[in-house]
Amino acid sequence: MTILIKKCTVEDLHTLQAISYETFNDTFKDQNSPENMHAYLEKAFNVKQLECELSNLSSEFFFVYFHDELAGYLKINTNDAQSEEMGDEAFEIERIYIKKPFQKHGLGNYLFNRAMELAMEKKKKKIWLGVWEKNENAIAFYRKMGFVQTGAHSFYMGDEEQIDFIMTKTLQ
In terms of pTM, does the model score above 0.90? Predict the structure, then answer.
């Protein structure tokens, strides 16, 4: 099994946009209205927004390749790039998304482990993420990885307010 993780750059902008649309849409389209999905995709993954995120030194994106095919990606945030104020000792996993045909191959684990390595390299004391309360598979995955629910926050899918659980893992 050949797996490669590569850091994204601004030159990867359009590839990042395409995989972001595809994976987010595939993951959430069945639980949300087409209007709200469209509104969110246009807001979160437009070229200007992604270019800004790729240029932010406190955010990093990584592609994962499975047998030379782009299979998914990871987005992490530190410092002021975090989507919630968690302080300088915190490290956020904002996104781990795998394309449907590549799921169940352990690629999420590879990306998760890369995030853990980065958090430790950056000497962070905790790693956290937000996960939709209805995304039971992701919640189970993060619990298995040692995360516990420490809070919740609102997440807007178009005009619909949804709840994300804040899950945190303390690093040694």
Answer: yes
How, if at all, do strands 126-132 and 160-170 pair? antiparallel
CB distance 90 to 82 below 8 Å: yes
Q: What is the pLDDT of residues 109-160, one digit of tens each?
A: 999 999 999 999 999 999 999 999 998 988 998 999 899 999 999 989 989 9
- Helices 47-55 and 13-28 pack at an angle, to 10 degrees, of 110
First CA to last CA across the chain, in angstroms?
31
Of 40, 65, 142, 156, which one is the catalytic site residue?
142
Active site residue 142: yes
Map out the domains of the chain with their CATH numbers: 3-170 (3.40.630.30)
- Convert the pLDDT of each residue in 91-100 to its tens digit: 999 999 999 9
Distances, alpha carbon 65 to alpha carbons 2, 52, 135, 158, in Å: 8, 24, 24, 31
Q: What is each CA distance from 61 to 64, 88, 97, 125, in whole angstroms?
A: 10, 19, 11, 21
- 132 close to 164: Cβ distance less than 8 angstroms: yes
Measured distance CA(166)–CA(116) in Å, rounded: 17
Other Cβ atoms closer than 10 A to 60:
19
